[in-house]
Amino acid sequence: MPDRPPTPPKREFSWSAVLKKLVFWVLLAAVTLVFLHLSSAGQEKALEVTYTAFDQQLAQGNVSEVTVEEGKRLTGRFKQPVRVKDKESTRFYTDLPFQNDPNDLERLRAANVIIRGSNSKGSITLILIQALPYVLLFGISMLIFRQMQAGGAKAFSFGKSKAKLLSGDTPKVTFADVAGADEAKAELQEIIEFLRDPQRFTRLGGRLPKGVLLVGPPGTGKTLLARAVAGEAGRPFFSMSGSDFVEMFVGVGASRVRDLFEQGKAHAPCIIFIDEIDAVGRHRGAGLGGGHDEREQTLNQLLVEMDGFDSSKGVIIMAATNRPEVLDAALLRAGRFDRQVVVDRPDVRGRAAILQVHARHVRLAPEVSLQVIAARTPGFAGADLANIVNEAALLAARKGKDAVGQADLEEAIDRVVAGLERKSRVLSETERDIVAHHEMGHALVAFNVAHADPVHKITIIPRGVAALGMTYQLPTEDRFLLTRSELEDRIAVLLGGRVAEELVYGEVSTGAHNDLERATEMARLMVMQYGMSEQLGPMTFGGGPQAMFLRGSGLPQEREYSEESARRIDGETRSIIDRI
Ligand code: ADP
Ligand code: MG
Ligand code: ZN
Asked: Which of 12, 202, 440, 502 has the fewest Cβ atoms nearer than 10 Å?
């Protein structure tokens, strides 16, 4: 099967080469022209004759025709060759002593001479200047033609898709490499079977989904899954990123889409994968930057292409995005990306499985428990976990160990969560004392309140930009709901550090800044979003996720509640924190 188009020989494009060729062509054309001119004139050289001589010849009736050039000069032919000095010719030219002398005309008429008028000087330079644009055009088009023939066509291939073809001999990704995402894998199983044997499904007249949209947060393995589908089915895989379609020139994106689909059709059954489709698929006429013609054109082309072929041929379009809410509705309707597969962040079991997959190529010490690591990393995506395993392997290697231990994995988490260890930031003895007591405060409160997660580790090693110490709590399970008392206990733990400082030193330091921020945020959410305040009751204030998004963009946020409510929200937020 022709899975691979013949790879054309690579040809680098350079402007100096083009310039050289251009100069060559222009010179060639100029030489040709000069030669032509000379040869035509060379048949018989025109004689310069005096006006008197011309007058005599005219009187003798020896002039057959004349051309009057700009009323100043006469060129023409004699009937019989005339000798001047040692040259003989039937062609002549002469300068007119009087411009536009009407007498001349009369006499020429009387002598039955053919008269022509001309405004051009007919000199070589003039011919060259007039011919130059044509010569240039000819040269450039010749160049383009030759470049295209050579197959390189780099500079003139804006419209070609940059789709990468992964098939056959590229290392295969299979479902074994994707851990966790079981539901997504089950959903995609059908697609794989279809790609393996398209006839089996269309036999009864059923129509398969044209498009599958993978939706999920970054790093959860969407790209990986798409490649695994192609790998499982053993079919070609054309992948392109949404941003590849967006270029400087209008119309390029659209033609790339066309090209991508053409390639796909030629290799059916296969998968066309458009990664990060939100770059082109954002819904039209929206966006903060106003309309964007190029992107709109590209999107339209994509819609047209998706309508234009039927999936029974065996081309499946997959796309991935982490922002499905910005996609144009036309993309999501039935007959386009009508199937959405959610790829979410993994749960504890999924995380353990992902760690397992990535630990395959790493030598682990026997004491390592990936379960514990999985439990310590709620909210981590597959990419983060892969990163942790890799960091741990690097750390162990740097220490000269011959296997990766549990401590290396733990340190890798710290590093991923809080940033690099700041060895250079040395704290003074008193500061270390304060930080230690502060962290101890967090830990003690966590230990004593009813609903806090157990403390896993306390450190006073400075990390990242601001953290001087940290108390890690190990959640016993992934949480999707939090009760009111759990939220209050969390606030209490956050405030524990500050309280400890107060109790031990009688005053507070700046170290609790981040704790306070988080505690305030949590209390405010309780009042404004979760309806957990007695005074304000079960009502929400302010927008939800949309407002969160706008907050980041620096746009003024609309407040949908009164000044009065705002004051009461602040009051309630305060009272929650005070109470605890
Ligand atoms: P996305 O496209 O969703 O942003 P990727 O597919 O690019 O994420 O994932 C990045 C990397 O994270 C992958 O190359 C893989 O190493 C790792 N990864 C993510 N999810 C998983 C998973 N479920 N199983 C194994 N590895 C994963
Ligand atoms: Mg991706
Ligand atoms: Zn703290």
From this structure: 12
